[in-house]
Structure formats: structure tokens, C-alpha cells
Specification:
246 residues, 3-stranded antiparallel sheet, 5-stranded antiparallel sheet, elongated, alpha+beta, 3 domains, PH-domain like
């Protein structure tokens, strides 16, 4: 078990002030009690992390006004698998989408390119009702295909980045300038930790989601970093915790 360290003064809490049964670690210098399990998790999270030497694909920069901590989503194995899913799924869906585009163009009296499939079903031209139904039916499958494309691109050039400056903090997850931004007040953060959520899929197989969690005093929770490799996620979590709580 990692040696518990007081998060306020950064001093080691001696074993005489640790009560494992009651999950309590007492810092005499600060006159504060802490949950031992929480301090243990923090110790494991920060163990082996050198904030001055980020792992490959991670970074930590400070220019005086703002601290930027982040890591790339780049992962060759994930990218190859994502490319396979993109080609398989979108290759099938594109056949039906092209067919429905041809039917839509015919109904709107546009010239249909000769290389488009004939907009026919059961030997006759597709009517308005069938064309509209097929668009509605295909919509969720199209969005799933776009999701596969996004995941593939993210595994090549996506990133997760935390910007901390003054009274504003932003967690960005995305590609380039496109992505999700979660804002928080750095002065109100009370905890930063890695959270591991186990779950089972529809077939009963065990899965887990691992992410970095920022919790504020108002109860706001920000989750990020699920697409990061373990080493990068651990560095980002430790660096963000150091920037916000030390």
C-alpha cells in the first residue's frame, strides 16, 4: 500500500496516525483527518509519475498565465481496428444511401447519374412513402457510421487537453478545434482522481471505463480521458491534480 501523504502539506502521515479499520489517516501538522482509501488512490495515481518528464504523447506547459496539460489519443492498434469498422460498416450503408439518393433525385426530377443504382424496389420505382421511410430507417445507421469515422480520426490525431488559468478551467476532448469543451472553476475543485467503472455488455462480458474525474465543491463532476492510454491518463491526472490542489 502506498505511503499516505497529506494533500494539504505534502508530508508523509506516519503509520501510528493511520487507522486502516476505520479508513482514517490523521495529519498532526494540519490537524486534519483524511480518508485513507482516498490518499492511497492518490498515491497509486502519482506513483512513478515525473511531472517534468511527460511520457511520449503527453505534455505540460506553463506560460505564467495559463497551464496546459494534455495528451494525444494516438494509438496505432485502435486506429487499424477503427479503419476496419469504418470500411465495413460504411461500405454496406453507402449502398442503401446511394440507392435512396437516386430515388430522391428522381422524385425531385433531377438527372440521376448513370453510375447510381436504379431506384427500384420489387421491380418498380420507389415512391415517396418508401423513400421517406428508408431515410428515417437509415438515419441512425448513418450516425453510427459517422461515429466510427470520428473514432478512427480521433485515434490518429485527437487529443484531450486541460487548460487552467485564473478563474477558468476548460477540459477539451476532440480533433483540432472540433470537440467537446467542459468548463469549471479551478478555485472550487476539491478532488481529482482516476475512476475505474466496471460494467457488463449485453452479452455478459466484463468491460470497464477508466477516466479522469474532476469534482468541485458544488458537486459538479467532469469526466474525461477515456481515450487516453493508461500511461498518458495517469500523467494527465497527476499533473492536473498538482496544478489544482497543490
Amino acid at each position: 500500500m502506498p505511503t499516505p501523504i497529506c494533500p494539504k502539506c505534502n508530508r508523509v502521515i506516519p503509520s501510528d496516525d493511520v487507522n486502516v479499520a476505520n479508513d482514517v489517516a490523521y495529519c498532526r501538522g494540519c490537524n486534519l483527518s483524511h480518508k485513507l482509501s482516498t490518499l492511497t488512490q492518490i498515491g497509486e495515481m502519482e506513483s512513478g509519475v515525473d511531472l517534468n518528464s511527460p511520457p511520449a504523447g503527453a505534455w505540460r506547459r506553463t506560460d505564467g498565465a495559463e497551464t496546459v496539460i494534455g495528451a494525444t489519443h494516438r494509438a496505432l492498434g485502435t486506429a487499424i481496428m477503427g479503419l476496419g469498422l469504418c470500411v465495413f460498416w460504411n461500405g454496406i450503408i453507402s449502398v442503401f444511401v446511394t440507392l435512396n439518393i437516386a430515388a430522391t433525385m428522381r422524385l425531385l426530377h433531377f438527372t440521376v447519374p448513370v453510375w447510381f443504382p436504379a431506384p427500384k424496389m420489387n421491380g418498380s420505382n420507389m415512391g415517396v412513402g418508401m423513400t421517406l421511410f428508408l431515410w428515417l430507417f437509415l438515419t441512425p445507421f448513418i450516425f453510427i457510421g459517422l461515429g466510427f469515422v470520428w473514432a478512427f480520426l480521433s485515434s490518429l490525431c485527437g487529443r484531450t487537453e486541460v487548460r487552467i488559468g485564473g478563474s477558468q478551467g476548460v477540459v477539451f476532448t476532440g480533433i483540432g478545434a472540433l470537440g467537446r469543451r467542459q468548463r469549471f472553476d479551478p478555485t472550487s475543485v476539491k478532488d481529482v482522481r482516476i475512476y475505474d467503472l466496471p460494467w457488463r455488455d449485453s452479452d455478459g462480458y466484463r468491460r470497464r471505463n477508466t477516466y479522469v474525474l474532476i469534482e468541485t465543491q458544488q458537486g459538479k463532476v467532469i469526466k474525461f480521458g477515456t481515450m487516453l492510454k493508461d500511461e498518458r491518463r495517469k500523467f494527465v491526472a497527476a499533473a492536473v491534480r498538482n496544478a489544482l490542489l497543490r
